[in-house]
Structures are given as structure tokens and as C-alpha cells.
Amino acid sequence: MKKIVSPLANGGAPWSDDYLLTIQDQLYLALESLLSGIVPTTATGNVGVIISGCLVTGTGPYNCSSGIVYLNGTFMYFPGFSAQTLPQYIVPNTPIVVTDTWGNGTVNNFTSDQQATYQNTVPGSGQYLSLTTAGNQGGLGGYRLYQPNTQWTNLTLINSWTAYSGGAVPKYRVEPSGRVTISIYGVDGNSAATSPVICSLPAAITPLNDLTFPAFIANTSLLSTTKSFSVSSSGNISIVSYANTDELRNYSITYWLDS
Prior knowledge:
It is a single chain. The chain has one helix and 21 strands. The chain is mainly beta and 259 residues long. It folds into two domains: 17-144, no CATH class; 149-256, Sandwich (Immunoglobulin-like). The strands form five sheets. Strands 13, 14, 15, 16, 17, 18, 19, 20 and 21 form a nine-stranded antiparallel sheet that branches. The chain has a four-stranded mixed sheet with strand order 5-4-1-12, with no helix packed on it. A three-stranded antiparallel sheet has the order 2-3-6, with no helix packed on it. The protein is elongated. The two termini are 38 Å apart.
């Protein structure tokens, strides 16, 4: 990889526009090479990578946050949208080319801004990403990048839920394989809980679909016959058919990021 020597020797190093292109081209070559093995530029259809953002919210019409996507071998900024129906498809937009006047008086192309846009019809060619439901969109028609976190990280209890009998609060970890494990030592409504939602996950590790897991009565090893934990695609961990007196736990809720 080519790069400018740092630090440069004193004495007034020569400088030209080619040096700026060296910095740009080498940086993009390294970044885009990281993803070319996951999504070959020759692939077409419902493939691509959401680098960040693109979180769909609402119950219809829907909003989608801005983000960075990788399509056709190029990083693109996606500005998002508001008040739209689903499905929508993220596709490359027409590059915006800005010209400027050179020192010799000629007008030439100077910068090119490649962004992504959206449409409500399935693209006929090229790479795209599908937005079909509310929640984290990382695996819907594409791949999700995530940062493994093999250390346990605490989740914050909300809506007046507390840790059962002074025990540990819920926590999670993410393995390099993409497996998410959530441990709920025990939660207690204390007759004060105001909602079935006990805590929320970071957007990057929410499942693609709503998932349900068994719940155990907190002070025993007995499986509850009427209660369960729900992990939604929006990241909420809730008690199904909750009561504010519930005392429940589940030591190991596990799913993969493409679940």
C-alpha cells in the first residue's frame, strides 16, 4: 500500500494534486477490500451491506434513519426517508458531479458524490437492500456488520423493573460468530412496573424477527406456564402477558444476528 512518509524531512517537500489522490485511492482500496469478499461487485440482486443506521421505525407509514451502505463495491450515504409505505428498496443514486475552474481557465469535473436513494419497486438490475419491516435492517436483503463483544455488558432496567432480590441486572454479550447471549438473572415488578418492556438492546444486535423464549419463576427452577420473554426486532425485551407482580428469569436467551 502506498502512503506518504510521515514525518516528512524538513526543507520544503514538493506537493501536487496527485498526492491527494494517493491518500484517497489507497484509503478506499483498503476499506472496500474488507467487504469485497463478503459481497462481490459482480453479484446482483438483494445483496449489500448496511454499515450503520437505516433503522426503520413506525407502524405505517414508516420512517428510516440515515446511514452508510455498501452497494456495487462502493460506500454510499443514505439520507433515509419519512412517512413511506413498505417495502422500500435502497439503491444507488445518480452520482452528483461538481465542476470547478482550473488554473488554465478550463472547467473540469472536481468531485463526485455517490449517494443511495430508495424506491418502492424491486430494482431490475444491480445491487440493492430491502426494507420490509420495522426494526434493525441489517440482514433484510443484505449483511449486517457488528462489533463482537465477548465481555458481558449490563442492560438498563426500565419501567420500574428491578433486579430480583438484589441480583445481577440483565446483561448480554456478542460472540465473533454473531451469536447473541442474554442472561436475565431475575426481574421483579415489585407491584410497580408500568410496562411489559424490561429493557432494550443496542440497535446493532437486535434480531431480524420477533423471538420468544421461556421464562422461569424467579425464586425456583419451575418453568412458567403462562409467561415468556419476547425479544423484538426493535430491540425491546418484554414479558408476554405480564403483571406488575411478576418475578421471572432466564439464564440464557440465545439467538444469531440473522435470526
